[in-house]
Give the backbone structure.
Amino acid sequence: MHMADKRKDKSGRVLRKGESQRKDNTYMYRWVNNDGERECVYARTLNELRELEEGINRDMVLGVCRKADTLNEQIERYLKTKVNLANSTKENYKYYFNHVIKESRIGRTKVTDIRKSDILLFYNSLTEQGLSIGTIKIIHKIIRPSLQLACDDDVISKNPADGCTKDYTDNPEKKYALTFEEEEEFLTRIVMRPRMKRYYPMYAIILKTGMRISEAIGLTWNDVSLDSREISINHQIQYRVMDGVVKLYSTDTKTSAGRRVIPMTDEVYQLFMEQRKVWLSTKKDPDFNVDGYKDFVFVSHITGKCMNHNSVRRMMRTIVSMNDDRDIKLPDLSPHILRHTACCRFAESGCDIKVLQYLMGQTDIKTTMRVYNHVDMERVKRELNRLKQLNQQSEKFTPKFTPFCHKFM
């Protein structure tokens, strides 16, 4: 074919075999795949089209199959393969998939047509919508492994989601454990407020056992044996805000290690005895249950239903708001800080690391070690005071050392 016979676009650029410009000025590329079937892709510019062509040609050389699902279909396929995923995590993934990804343009795009820039632009749009960095990272945990599965199935040659969150860095909140003084101040403030006083046992039990807030909220009297003085952690209650309404649902424990039996100390036993009195005096909704669970230990005196996560956090914010009128100032508090405080107390008391891991319901010993090795100034001071006391005790039994030079003075 002579140069004059070659096809060109409206800008006079020569089009390659399979390329064409459409009436709306977009571009199309047609080719025959390795199965002998005709396929086509579209792009807004010729440069974009040729980038797609390079990927197509590379995939054909590698024997990659171009038949592909949309991202939505690929995510659904991926979630079906995750049989060991914790129920709470799977529910979380399903929620963000249904409410964020599914109705988006990228969700309806075939995985073979998704480029890295598409994912970056999608995440940027989520940021503009006000989604937090943490939420975007959760969504990335859904998209990236789903596309990796497509790679493993030879549907695409490389994962376009790789490295797409490197610019989404947040400053993780430093885990803070209350000092003994702050812990006492926190519990004192609860007692000071008449309407909050009834929740003293709940907060104290969390502080003394290290239960997760979802485990504490889900605790029923069937899980508490006052006779054998044991607490059985076998499920948790989670919540999701849907259409402005808080929906509670039960799930298995966060991990298999989360299923555990916590023995009660004498102090915790007395707290449960107090909580029993509070529970008996509280008017309860007789029909309330969460997926069959009922007779919850910690009940709201307002609704007669089990406590919810937001109420617990709201009361903690109220406690902190009293700082202006108190000599001891409390930091911003969360249920996790109470759990972290409990873990630190166990560690400081010399609790065996494996026992501590069991009590906290943690699968990875490294997580426990990070707490076990956590050192703050208060802990340093307490350890030095403890050593001082030990030295003072040992001095009673150790002969005084008199320098030799004193004999000659």
About this structure: The first helix runs from residue 46 to 62.
